[in-house]
């Protein structure tokens, strides 16, 4: 028997998202529920959305060291058999799409039949996420940063973005447009933490610097809550309440130097998708022109600029012309972006709210529904390692 080449092995059309669920979203530390209860609430909401008995779940997938243990979830839900548990390496939201890919791979490989992918956060219970305290030793990229006082994510990523802006002539207005688009969409989304709090250019420009070139509104929020989706094999996709969203492709990883990137590296000003984007399009069998709507993780708006360019939506030198508000908003912008409000204005559920919004767009259920909705992209964790991405499609794309 001859092993299939990598390009012949695929997730395309073999797994479908049939349920989505989420809790209320809160400012960080404000959840009335502990983190484990939030996870259960989101999973049960996804089961209800699908019309699925929770006992049919037989696997769990998450990322960023989620603290809601799969075995404990299985016991609390009363599932009959736990068949697969996967956790994606990497902090923050770089794994939000990889966790979906890991679940899909488990199903395609025959390890499980019904897998939940989830993320839950209750920072009042466990402390604020991402603080730099309690680190006894450093290695990898941190060895280039921490000895010089670069401790916080805005400091770390501001230098990458500033170099990208310098090399390609990208102006502050390009990042401003991304922030404005997120807040524009959040005003139609009652779930959004920033619902009822619009943003305009004057307010953006007047906001304080966090770490130049990042204004306050270039930085994601910090929130509590939980979000979950349910995946099943393609042959079961029609058995549930809602229109399925099929996995067309997924990729995870980074360039070989991204784990130890000195500031003088030629790849320093990168969102880490130069190898992932071609792999994603290759598996899905589509091009950037086929993508109808994008949900891109905004830890910081500058990372979105780089990530969109690396996915081929424009050349870096074209960023100023492409990234204007009218191009980025639903229903008929050139490339509607973060149509639920995203990490900046809906909720920072480490990007998993973006996956749910991509499913809503495929179903036609978004509060900011785009006109063309057969292909939705999710980009997870620009500038972190490993990063990941995901393409979902309607049945018409198969």
UniProtKB/TrEMBL annotation:
The Thiolase C-terminal domain extends over 266-380
Q: Which GO terms describe its molecular function?
A: acetyl-CoA C-acyltransferase activity
Can you say what this protein is called? Answer: Acetyl-CoA acetyltransferase
Q: Report the source organism.
A: Bradyrhizobium betae
């Amino acid at each position: 028997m001859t092993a299939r080449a990598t390009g012949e092995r695929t997730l395309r059309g073999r797994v479908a998202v049939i349920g989505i669920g989420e809790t209320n979203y809160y400012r960080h530390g404000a959840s009335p529920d502990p983190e484990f209860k939030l996870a259960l609430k989101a999973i049960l909401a996804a089961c209800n959305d699908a019309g699925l008995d929770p006992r049919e779940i037989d696997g769990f997938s998450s990322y960023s060291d989620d603290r809601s243990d799969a075995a404990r979830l299985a016991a609390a839900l009363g599932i009959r058999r736990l068949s697969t548990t996967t956790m994606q390496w990497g902090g923050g939201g770089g794994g939000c799409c990889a966790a979906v890919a890991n679940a899909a791979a488990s199903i395609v490989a025959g390890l499980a039949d019904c897998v939940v992918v989830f993320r839950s956060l209750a920072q009042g219970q466990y402390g604020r996420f991402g603080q730099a305290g309690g680190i006894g030793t450093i290695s990898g990229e941190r060895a280039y940063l921490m000895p010089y006082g670069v401790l916080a994510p805005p400091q770390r990523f501001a230098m990458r973005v500033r170099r990208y802006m310098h090399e390609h002539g990208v102006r502050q207005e390009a990042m401003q447009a991304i922030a404005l688009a997120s807040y524009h969409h959040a005003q139609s989304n009652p779930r959004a933490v920033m619902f009822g709090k619009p943003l305009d250019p004057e307010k953006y420009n007047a906001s304080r610097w966090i770490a130049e070139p990042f204004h306050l509104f270039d930085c994601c929020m910090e929130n509590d809550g939980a979000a979950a989706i349910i995946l099943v094999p393609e042959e079961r996709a029609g058995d549930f309440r809602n229109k399925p969203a099929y996995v067309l492709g997924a990729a995870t990883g980074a360039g070989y130097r991204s784990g130890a990137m000195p500031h003088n590296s030629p790849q320093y000003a990168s969102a880490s998708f130069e190898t992932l984007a071609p792999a994603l399009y290759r598996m899905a069998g589509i091009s950037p022109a086929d993508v109808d709507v994008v949900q891109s993780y905004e830890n910081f708006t500058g990372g979105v600029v780089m990530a969109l360019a690396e996915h081929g939506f424009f050349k870096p030198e074209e960023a100023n012309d492409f990234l204007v508000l009218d191009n980025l908003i639903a229903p008929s912008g050139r490339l509607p972006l973060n149509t639920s409000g995203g990490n900046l204005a809906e909720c920072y559920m480490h990007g998993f709210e973006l996956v749910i919004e991509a499913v809503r767009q495929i179903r036609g259920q978004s509060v900011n529904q785009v006109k063309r909705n057969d292909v939705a992209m999710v980009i997870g964790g620009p500038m972190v390692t490993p990063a990941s991405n995901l393409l979902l499609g309607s049945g018409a794309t198969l």
